[in-house]
Specification:
The complex is a heterodimer of chains A (441) and B (265).
Chain A (H helix, E strand, L loop, with lengths): L17 H39 L4 E10 L2 H4 L7 H4 L4 H19 L8 H4 L7 H11 L7 E7 L2 H7 L5 H5 L6 H13 L2 E5 L2 H4 L14 H32 L4 H15 L2 H15 L7 H25 L3 H9 L4 H29 L3 H5 L20 H9 L5 H32 L3
Antiparallel strand pairs in A: 1-2, 1-3
Helix pairs in contact in A: 1-19, 4-6, 11-14, 11-16, 11-18, 12-14, 13-14, 14-16, 15-16, 16-19, 18-19
Chain B lengths: L15 E12 L2 E12 L3 E5 L6 H8 L9 E9 L2 E2 L7 H7 E4 L10 H12 L5 H14 L3 H4 L12 H14 L4 E5 L7 H14 L4 E5 L3 H7 L2 E6 L2 E7 H6 L4 H7 L5
Parallel strand pairs in B: 3-8, 3-9, 6-7, 7-8
Antiparallel strand pairs in B: 1-2, 1-4, 4-5, 9-10
The chains are: A mainly alpha (441), B alpha/beta (265).
The complex binds adenosine-5'-triphosphate and magnesium ion (MG).
The site of adenosine-5'-triphosphate (ATP) has 13 residues of chain B, from β2 and α1.
């Protein structure tokens, strides 16, 4: 009888035979490959995060100058009636002179000015944006005119770079934008509390700024533009994507046409995003004459790109609903529509939502198609609606990495952090929604 | 065979509820059902017996057009419900299925609460006018399916959390709740213990007062206990159809004879 049992090595269960040992060794090897693969992925992720946060965290801190400034009525409000419309005639040049005088007086009084530093050189510690900040403050509160107010304005980008370690005394000697004296002055002002660094809200609220004033560059317009675009994408791709996948999966007859459509959807999901940009340029801008750089066009292009990427996981989620549930509903006399909406969709919802959020996250980070439809333009005005020019977060990152001033490197990394925060929020929403739907068994 | 208590043979000569003539079903190239003629009478329980894969479920699914959902299935021949051809182009299968209820071979409760499972049919067909009426339908349906005592304290917990046999009874309650005219049951007792089986059989007997009941079963004893008419299927053919007593005591076809005596199947 023991034809087969003679192949067995050991008859004791306490001693593993050669075959078992080989099998166990193979399993152990396979597991170690898995652990190694995950470890490599984690190391890559951690390196990426460290590099981004190392470079970008400083974008959220900024150096400010805080000095008392006397606001002379005769230069800032020549008509004397405190009418904001009249006062707006005084340009930033006027405010620049006021600011310069105020800062010079303040630092001289504090006795922090290095030996032999000229008055004309002192104002160089201020950002070129500072007069505009002062002007905005005064136009908002005209009653400040004639008084002396503690003013909080941006320091020059090189001064900020000095405190962040980007600029040194040696590099300042070769730099036309800053002098070693200014750095000494800045150091002394910090000790007297006239200069300080604080959280930079402006980075997330202010619009982009020109090459000469990196310290004033912010993401306000880009964030608004991205939000507007996401609004368009959600509004269009959620209903269209869900309707298309429900139709294809639950109602469409299975024939050659639906096969063709199916193959095409899969192909569209693989089309490089820049192609959608060309399509958008041709259709929405050249043909439909929608404005360039507008979130509506960006949103439409991203919708085209996102739709197949939403439809594919949505169909997979619908297909994963057990057919017995459909039978059960049809069996009690529900129509196909009732079957889908009462039973199939609620069960598929977590999967559909996950696919949706992943599609949106991709759309949020998409750059290439937006470049083609002009969203790379330099926009300083906040967009008031879908048809106003705007920028977008990933485009802003791209844009800042192109600038020559090293201060923009920090800004670009900071913008990536903001983008990551948005993505994490979206994923969190996806998880919460999935939990909520899953609890309904 | 001696232990079989054959149901009282009161085959009422009442009217035919469903008349099937020359029904053929193909699944792609598989010829699953070959030329079936059968009359299902009102007020009777008709049992389908036969070895696994012989086409019992397939024929049952023809009777409420559930085969429509299988793309590969092709049904030919005529099936008339109260004289109207249910495969007529003008027939809405949704309306048909409200009249011809079904309990599936595998329990398939909705992933919703026990209450919602039973209340779903009455709700979508607008059978009740108030919450109290609906509560009442749910209660009587669950009582009929012999499930009420086990679930009355947890009507709002998930139906999928019940045991297999309880789920099957929930599906019976769900089918009964819409008060169909014909009730098709595909092996409703395969997952039940003897006590629940006895309760369901009692229900079947009770239901035939109002409906025509068709039951597929692998238990010859069950077929003998509950049915008045029995149909024996073999390899897609309807081999023999007649009064249950006659099929079990005096089968005409040798294949029927060998199946009920346990030689094929
Ligand atoms: N969806 C389907 N697609 C293709 N073939 C099918 C399908 N359903 C059933 N069949 C085939 O049709 C034949 C009859 O199947 P059916 O389910 O009716 O058998 P049954 O008598 O109910 O068997 P059981 O007692 O095991 O439930 C089988 O040969 C089966 O393989
Ligand atoms: Mg079956």
């Amino acid at each position: 009888m023991s034809d087969i049992s003679s192949h067995r090595g050991s008859s004791s269960l306490l001693v593993a035979d050669a075959r078992t040992k080989r099998r166990n060794a193979a399993e152990a090897r396979f597991r170690s490959y898995g652990v190694a693969a995950i470890a490599i992925a984690l190391i890559a992720l951690v390196t990426l995060l460290i590099s981004i946060f190392g470079n970008g965290a400083s974008a959220f801190r900024q150096t400010f100058v805080t000095v008392p400034i006397t606001l002379p009525a005769e230069t800032l409000d020549p008509s004397g009636n405190r009418d904001p419309a009249e006062m707006a005639k005084v340009t930033t040049i006027g405010y620049g002179n006021v600011l310069k005088a105020g800062v010079t007086a303040a630092v001289r009084e504090a006795g922090v000015v290095p030996e032999g530093m000229a008055d004309s050189d002192i104002a160089g510690i201020l950002s070129q944006e500072a007069p505009a900040q002062l002007r905005a403050m005064v136009l908002e509160n005209p009653e400040l005119i004639g008084t002396t107010v503690e003013t909080h304005v941006l320091a020059h980008g090189r001064i900020d770079g000095f405190f962040k370690g980007r600029v040194t005394m040696e590099s300042a000697q070769r730099d036309s934008n800053v002098t070693p004296e200014r750095l000494q002055l800045a150091q002394a002002m910090t000790e007297k509390g006239l200069m300080s660094s604080g959280f930079n809200w402006g980075f997330v609220t202010m619009p982009d700024a020109s090459d000469q004033r990196p310290e004033a560059a912010g993401l306000g317009v880009a964030i608004l533009g991205s939000l507007f675009m996401m609004f368009v994408v959600v509004l269009l791709s959620l209903p269209i994507g869900v309707a298309a996948s429900v139709y294809l999966e639950e109602f469409a007859p299975k024939n050659r046409w639906t096969d063709v459509i199916e193959v095409n959807i899969s192909n569209l999901a693989a089309v490089p995003s820049i192609v959608f940009g060309i399509l958008g340029l041709a259709i929405f801008i050249n043909f439909a004459h929608l404005p360039q750089s507008a979130p509506i066009v960006g949103g439409l292009v991203l919708t085209l790109m996102t739709l197949p990427r939403i439809i594919i996981p949505a169909r997979a989620a619908l297909r994963a609903v057990p057919p017995s549930i459909r039978d059960a509903a049809l069996g009690v006399g529900a129509s196909r529509m009732q079957t889908v909406f009462h039973h199939v969709l609620p069960l598929a919802a977590p999967g559909i939502l996950t696919g949706m959020i992943i599609g949106l996250a991709q759309a949020l980070g998409e750059t290439a198609p937006l470049l083609l439809i002009g969203m790379v333009a330099f926009v300083r005005d906040y967009p008031g609606g879908l048809f106003d020019p705007a920028s977008a977060l990933p485009v802003q990152v791209y844009n800042w990495t192109q600038r020559s001033d090293p201060a923009f490197v920090e800004r670009a990394s900071g913008a990536i952090i903001v983008l990551l925060v948005f993505l994490i929020c979206m994923n969190a929403i996806a998880i919460i929604l999935r939990r909520r739907f899953e609890r309904r068994w | 065979m001696n232990d079989m208590r054959i149901a009282e043979r009161d085959v009422s000569t009442s009217e035919t509820k469903i008349a099937a003539r020359g029904v053929q079903v193909h699944y792609g190239t598989t010829h699953a059902l070959k030329d079936v003629d059968i009359d299902i009478l009102n007020g009777n329980v008709t049992a389908f017996i036969g070895p696994s894969g012989c086409g019992k479920s397939t024929f049952l699914r023809c009777l409420n057009r559930m085969n429509d959902t299988i793309a590969a299935a092709k049904v030919t021949g005529s099936i008339k419900l109260d004289g109207e051809d249910i495969y007529d182009a003008k027939v809405d299968p949704v309306q048909l299925r409200a009249k011809v209820g079904m309990v599936f071979q595998k329990p398939n409760p909705f992933p919703k609460s026990i209450y919602d499972n039973v209340a779903y049919g009455p709700k979508i067909h607008g059978l009740t006018r108030s919450k109290a009426e609906l509560d009442n339908v749910v209660e009587t349906s669950l009582k009929k399916a012999a499930l009420w005592n086990e679930v009355k304290d947890r009507l709002h917990s998930p139906g999928t959390g019940l045991s297999g046999g309880q789920q099957q009874r929930l599906c019976i309650a769900r089918a009964v709740a819409t008060s169909p005219e014909v009730l098709l049951m595909d092996e409703p007792c395969s997952a039940l213990d003897p006590i629940a089986t006895a309760q369901v059989e009692e229900l079947i007997d009770e239901l035939r007062g109002q409906f025509a009941v068709v039951i597929v079963t692998h238990s010859m004893q069950q077929a003998a206990r509950v049915s008045q008419k029995t149909a024996f299927f073999h390899l897609g053919n309807l081999v023999e159809f007649g009064e249950t007593g006659q099929i079990f005591t005096n089968p005409r076809d040798p294949r029927t004879e060998s199946y009920i005596s346990g030689r094929i199947g």
